[in-house]
User: What shape does this take?
Amino acid sequence: MVELDAVLPFTAARARNAGFQRVMEQEPDVAFIQFVDGDCDLVEGWLERGAAALNARPDVGIVCGHVREIHPEASVYNKLCDLEWEQTPGEIRSSGGRFLIRREVFSAAGGFRADVIAAEDDEFCVRARGLGWKILMVDAEMARHDAAMMRFSQWWRRSRRTGHAYAQVAALHGNGEERYFVRDCRRVWFWGLVLPVLALGLAAFTHGWSLLLLAAYALQFVRIYLHGRKRDWAGRDALIYAWFTVIAKFPALVGMLEYHWRQMSGHAPAIIEYKRSS
Assistant: This one.
């Protein structure tokens, strides 16, 4: 176990860097490093499967596998996480925070940015791919995750953190060729702020006709629901995913505004947790 200096701001990125440094002190010649979150358990056999994938593809620097929730039935929020984890195997842009990586890739990329409070994995993967390495999702189970999300307030904080992550990582990589997270930020601005302000702000001048703009949320809900059904999700699962995807723009907007306020006021980003550490 590595204990971090409590004087400095805590982030998952900082903890992962410290863990990597400890491994290098004890096993400097190790070929691969596995990162895993504290609320996850690795599936037996994954390390062998992941290492085999890296050995088979010298152009691949990072591999990951499927993540599933331990208790998806415990709440709609846990189920939502379980749906979010689903990803098509193959080459991907970001692996999430659980992955197996070549030692030289992590070192060459400079590790995680300790000041990125969320989506530090996305930010790191942008830099790793910029060095020419590919990221591969293997069609195998890698880890079991315990979201332990039982309350709406937890989901709200998690979605707020996502918005903060969009804004912070877009500020770092939004001007690059792929304009990372720029589209996500624009969606949050539009659905979370522009559309409701237009609909409500113009209501008095249009005799209420501008409120019809709010029907766009219903259309968006139907579009996401049908997309979920095309992925062979059960009707209830598709409904859950569609509903929370639509309303998530509002807490995400709060998170984005929080990031920009901190930037303008000179305050350092502060970690946003939705559950207590285990």
Residues 151-270 form one domain.
